[in-house]
Every structure is written in structure tokens, then in C-alpha cells.
């Protein structure tokens, strides 16, 4: 997979969206975003509420703060970085369009990830060639397992590489061939020199093992 750092195009696109959709303050009046959103500091309630009212500077500050989290979430679940860029832009566009839902109690990070997750599901439905989205479908399935338990914007799939390493060699290879190389079950069976039925069972058990591993890691971090 490529870097999870958001490309410059994502911010430029977000700026274009804001430029055409938002009507922020102009002319030198200080915005709540002027003194907030320092590196590593969660946006405070004043900034969130300013964004809710349509303050362009405040909303741009939110985009700058959360873009890496949102892009990283999408990039981990998509093979094509361009798709990740497009869905990242769409996430912030929908956030802006639905900004009236923001309140002082809103956890902005989890809300944005929820929007991104829904966009991924829509993306999967649009693709008719199922092999192209097999990895995305697996990631969404793993997300669904812990969705109700994870309240922060931290990405549950951060532990996936470690969980992949915990699989046996055959199971790990089967997952790689199925979801990363996007091979058909018959092709995997030929590669592993097993029957197609045995490969299906191997992949099924490997998926269950990954879910269990991720679940155990979450329990250990609570």
C-alpha cells in the first residue's frame, strides 16, 4: 500500500469546495480559527460551533486538522490512491453540507470517519467488478465487528499487519492472494495446490482469526 499521507491535491480540492460552498467572514475580522487548532491540539468547541455557523476559516481549520486521519482511514481500505483522494474530498464536502448537525457535544473525528465509512460502502456498491473491491469489503467487514465499541477516531486496522503476521503461512498467503492480489478462488487453489473447497475454508478461517486478533487487541487497549 502507498503512503497514508494526504496529497496536496486533497487540501486544494477541499479549499475549492469551501470556496464555492462557504460564505465565511471577510475583511480582517478575527475568526475563532485564528488562535485554535495548534498542532496536536483537538479543536475546541468555539471552533466547531463557528464551523457549524458557516465560518469558512473555522471549517478550513477542521479540514486541516482531520484530513490526515480521514485520508489514512480511506487509503488503508482502497488500492487506488486516487479513489482515496476523491472520497476524502467528498467526506469533507458532506461534512460541510451537514454542518448543522455539529454541536458542542459532537466528536468530530468519529463523525468524519462515519461519513468516510458510508462513502466506502457506496463505492463498493458502485463497482460491478467485485475483485476490485475485495480488500475494501474485507476491511469494512472487520470495521463492522468493532464499530459500536470504538468511540474514538483511532483506526482499528492499525493492528491488522500484526494480526496478519499471526496467521499461519498458508492462511496469510491465501488472504494476500484473495484480497491484495485479487485472485479468484480457483486461481488461489491452483497456486496453493489445494482444492477450491479447501481454499474457501482456509480463507474463511483466516478471516475469523483476523477478527479475533483485532478484537483481542482492542480489549487489551481498553
TrEMBL record:
<dbReference type="Pfam" id="PF04542">
    <property type="entry name" value="Sigma70_r2"/>
</dbReference>
<dbReference type="InterPro" id="IPR036388">
    <property type="entry name" value="WH-like_DNA-bd_sf"/>
</dbReference>
<dbReference type="GO" id="GO:0006352">
    <property type="term" value="P:DNA-templated transcription initiation"/>
</dbReference>
<dbReference type="InterPro" id="IPR007627">
    <property type="entry name" value="RNA_pol_sigma70_r2"/>
</dbReference>
<dbReference type="InterPro" id="IPR039425">
    <property type="entry name" value="RNA_pol_sigma-70-like"/>
</dbReference>
<dbReference type="InterPro" id="IPR014284">
    <property type="entry name" value="RNA_pol_sigma-70_dom"/>
</dbReference>
<keyword id="KW-0238">DNA-binding</keyword>
<feature type="domain" description="RNA polymerase sigma-70 region 2">
    <location>
        <begin position="62"/>
        <end position="129"/>
    </location>
</feature>
<keyword id="KW-0731">Sigma factor</keyword>
<dbReference type="Pfam" id="PF08281">
    <property type="entry name" value="Sigma70_r4_2"/>
</dbReference>
<dbReference type="InterPro" id="IPR013249">
    <property type="entry name" value="RNA_pol_sigma70_r4_t2"/>
</dbReference>
<dbReference type="InterPro" id="IPR013325">
    <property type="entry name" value="RNA_pol_sigma_r2"/>
</dbReference>
<protein>
    <submittedName>
        <fullName>ECF RNA polymerase sigma factor SigW</fullName>
    </submittedName>
</protein>
<dbReference type="InterPro" id="IPR013324">
    <property type="entry name" value="RNA_pol_sigma_r3/r4-like"/>
</dbReference>
<keyword id="KW-0804">Transcription</keyword>
<feature type="domain" description="RNA polymerase sigma factor 70 region 4 type 2">
    <location>
        <begin position="163"/>
        <end position="210"/>
    </location>
</feature>
<dbReference type="GO" id="GO:0016987">
    <property type="term" value="F:sigma factor activity"/>
</dbReference>
<comment type="similarity">
    <text>Belongs to the sigma-70 factor family. ECF subfamily.</text>
</comment>
<dbReference type="GO" id="GO:0003677">
    <property type="term" value="F:DNA binding"/>
</dbReference>
<keyword id="KW-0805">Transcription regulation</keyword>
